Target: PDZ domain-containing protein
Amino acid sequence: AFSVELYVEVFLQGGAPWGFTLKGGLEHGAPLVISKVEEGGKAALLKNRLQVGDEVVSINEVELCGSRQEAISLVKGSYKTLKLIVLRYSNMSYSSYHEKEHSV
Model:
């Protein structure tokens, strides 16, 4: 009961490289998530930046079926702007709970 789900809209401008890496996807039997955000890259410089672990829900208004291949082709097809909607699980209360659990 610790995680909170947030939908976050991320709007990137200026063209590739966008500065993030995807992992998972239907092909791998896992959710499609952001596995890396390049420091200093476009995705890191936003006020509302992407975070590792964000699950990609839609790209440029196209709702994804969870396939990494589909996501990559949509990203590659983005010319000047890229709009992502990601699902973020916020575990803030969980981490503080975790620390208490380990104090001896």
